[in-house]
């Protein structure tokens, strides 16, 4: 059985390069949420040379649109979104310093090439376990694009958030 690797964002190049496809990881610290429309807006800001709502260097973005929080909870169910929906945007964000993304499913050639070129990884977490995953989130704050409602960018503080390296920075994957 492999040992679970502990990650704490912002991620360093050496931390990312130490990860191999198939490694189990546990994330504690600040991560950000963003889905399709938020990615599109972030890329527009990059194209315009404008400031982003959070620092991309070393960041982790979780592809999630959480449900509203129940009483006594900081967030609702928070399961991963299909990663390929962000393929058109991810290479630009990786080039600007994004070090990891969390989602589910396959990534396209452009993303895989960017992971290798810039030293980043793609992580996957369990689809269908959204309520369980939300228990690893101890704070959630909308920081941008509130008009996108559930797809707004959120700053999450997570503790022992579980994931698996599905694409590493060397071009390896767990998918055949």
Provide a descriptive summary of the structure in words.
- This protein has 176 residues and is an alpha/beta fold.
- The chain has one domain (5-167): Alpha-Beta Barrel (fumarase), CATH 3.20.130.
- Helices cover 22% and strands 27% of the residues.
- The chain contains five helices and seven strands, in the order E-H-E-H-E-H-E-H-E-H-E-E.
- The protein has helices at residues 13-17, 36-48, 90-95, 109-118, 130-134, and strands spanning 5-7, 24-33, 60-62, 100-103, 121-124, 137-144, 153-167.
- A five-stranded mixed β-barrel has the order 2-3-4-5-7.
- It is globular.
List the helices and strands and how they pair.
Layout: E1 5-7, H1 13-17, E2 24-33, H2 36-48, E3 60-62, H3 90-95, E4 100-103, H4 109-118, E5 121-124, H5 130-134, E6 137-144, E7 153-167
Summarize this structure as a short list of keywords or feature phrases.
alpha/beta, 7 strands, 5 helices, fumarase, 176 residues, five-stranded mixed beta barrel
Structural class: alpha/beta
* Succession of helices and strands: EHEHEHEHEHEE
Largest sheet: 5 strands, mixed, barrel
State the CATH topology. Answer: fumarase
What distance separates the N and C termini? 21 Å
Mean pLDDT: 96
Task: Work out the radius of gyration.
Answer: 15 Å
Which strand order do you get reading across the main beta sheet? 2-3-4-5-7
Number of domains: 1
Shape descriptor reads globular
| Weakly predicted, low-confidence segments | none
| Strand content range | 25-35%
**Annotated CATH homologous superfamily:** Fe-S hydro-lyase, tartrate dehydratase beta-type, catalytic domain
What's the CATH first level? Alpha Beta
Into which percent range does the helicity of residues fall? Answer: 10-25%
Number of strands: 7
- Any idea what the CATH architecture is? Alpha-Beta Barrel
Number of helices: 5
């Amino acid at each position: 059985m492999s040992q679970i690797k502990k990650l704490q964002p912002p991620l360093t190049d050496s931390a990312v390069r130490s990860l191999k496809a198939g490694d189990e990881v546990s994330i504690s610290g600040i991560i950000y949420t963003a889905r399709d429309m938020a990615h599109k807006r972030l890329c527009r800001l990059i194209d315009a040379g404008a400031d982003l709502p959070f620092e991309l260097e070393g960041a982790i973005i979780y592809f999630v649109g959480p449900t509203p929080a129940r009483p006594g909870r900081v967030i609702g169910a928070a399961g991963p979104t299909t990663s390929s929906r962000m393929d058109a945007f991810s290479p630009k964000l990786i080039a600007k310093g994004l070090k990891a993304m969390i989602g589910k499913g396959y990534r396209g050639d452009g993303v895989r090439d960017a992971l290798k070129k810039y030293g980043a990884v793609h992580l996957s977490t369990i689809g269908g376990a959204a309520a369980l995953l939300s228990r690893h989130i101890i704070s959630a704050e909308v920081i941008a694009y509130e008009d996108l409602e559930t797809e707004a960018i959120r700053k999450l503080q997570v503790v022992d958030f579980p994931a698996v390296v599905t694409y590493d920075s060397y071009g390896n994957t767990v998918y055949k």
